[in-house]
Amino acid sequence: MKPLLDAVGAAAAATVAALWMSTCAAAPELIWQGLKLFLDHLSWTAVGVAILMALVFVCFVEPVLRRLRSLLLHAPDEEPGHRPASILLWSALGLVFGFVSVCLHEAVAEFIAGHGSGAQEVIQLAVSFAAIPFMVTVAWQAAGNRILAIPLAILATISPLAAGWLFGWDAQAIFTTTVPGLAILFLGYRQSRLHPDSRLGSYALIVVLVAAMWLAVALLSDGILFAVTGKPAWLYDWADFFIDLRFYIGWALGLILAPASFGWSGRTAGSYQQV
C-alpha cells in the first residue's frame, strides 16, 4: 500500500509542479495585455480599485498567508520589518501587486467577454503556450523512470504540434514554438538523466540560453531575408517576438521561483523520490 501511496503522491507533486511552470509561462502575457487594457481605460475609479486591491493584499492576504505558513511549518512568524523604511517598501510592493491584480482582472474579463479588441486572441495564444511547459516539466521529472520516461518524452515532443492543432495556430506560430521548445525539452531531459538530483531551478539556465539564441537567430534570419528579398519577416513580427520573449521570461521565472518541494526525480528505476 505504501508504494502505491508514494507513487500517487509523487505524481500529484509532479503535476502541481508542471501547473506551476505553465502558469508562470502564461502570466507575463496576461499581465501585459491587462496593463494595456488598464491604461486604455485609465480613470480615477480604476486607480482607486488598484489601491484597494493593494491594501487588501498588504493588510489581509499576505499576513494571513504568512501566519498560516508559520503554523503549518512550525516556524517563527517573520515580520516584513518594523522600521518605517521597511514598512514603506512593503507597502510599495503591495501597491505593485494591487496593480498587477487589476491588470489580470482586466485581461481575464476581456478574454471572457470576447469584445474582439485583439487582446482575446493574444491571451488565448499565451494560454495555449502554457501546454508546452506543462508537458516538458512532466517529462523532465519522469526522465529517471524507465516505464514513464519514453511515453512522456514523446507526449512532450508532440505537445507543440498538438497545441497548434487544438488552438488553430498558423504555420509560423507552430514552427517558432516547436523548434526552441524541443531544444529546451531535450537539453533538460539530458540534464535530468545525467543529474537526477537537480532541482527544477537548475533548468532555468537552459530556458534562458535556448530562448536567447533562438530569438537572436530568428531576428537575424528575418533581417537577412528582408535585406536580400525585400519581403516582410516570416518568423516574427515585433508583436509576435515580444509575445515569445515574455513567454520564455515567465517560464524561466517559474523554474527559478519554484519551491524546493518541486524537486522530484526518479533516482531509481520505476520510482520517484523527493530531492
Summarize the structure in words:
The structure is a single chain. With 275 residues, the protein is mainly α. It has one domain. The protein is 76% helix and 1% strand. The chain has a two-stranded antiparallel sheet. A hairpin with a 7-residue loop joins strand 1 and strand 2. 34% of the residues are buried.
- If strands are numbered along the chain, what order do they take across the biggest sheet? 1-2
Q: Note the quaternary state here.
A: single chain
- Give the biggest sheet: 2 strands, antiparallel
Rg from Cα: 21 Å
Provide the residue-averaged pLDDT: 77
Note the total helix count: 9
Whole-number tally of structural domains: 1
- Report how far apart the termini are: 22 Å
Order of helices and strands: HHHHHHHHHEE
* Helix fraction bin: over 70%
* Percent in strands: under 5%
Name the structural class. Answer: mainly alpha
Shape: globular
Q: Which parts are unreliable, with pLDDT below 50 for 5 consecutive residues or more?
A: 264-275
Q: Give the strand tally.
A: 2
How would you summarize this macromolecular structure in one to three sentences?
This protein has one domain (2-274). Helix content is 76%, strand content 1%. It has helices at residues 2-40, 44-72, 84-113, 119-129, 131-141, 149-167, 171-194, 204-229, 238-257, and strands spanning 264-265, 273-274.
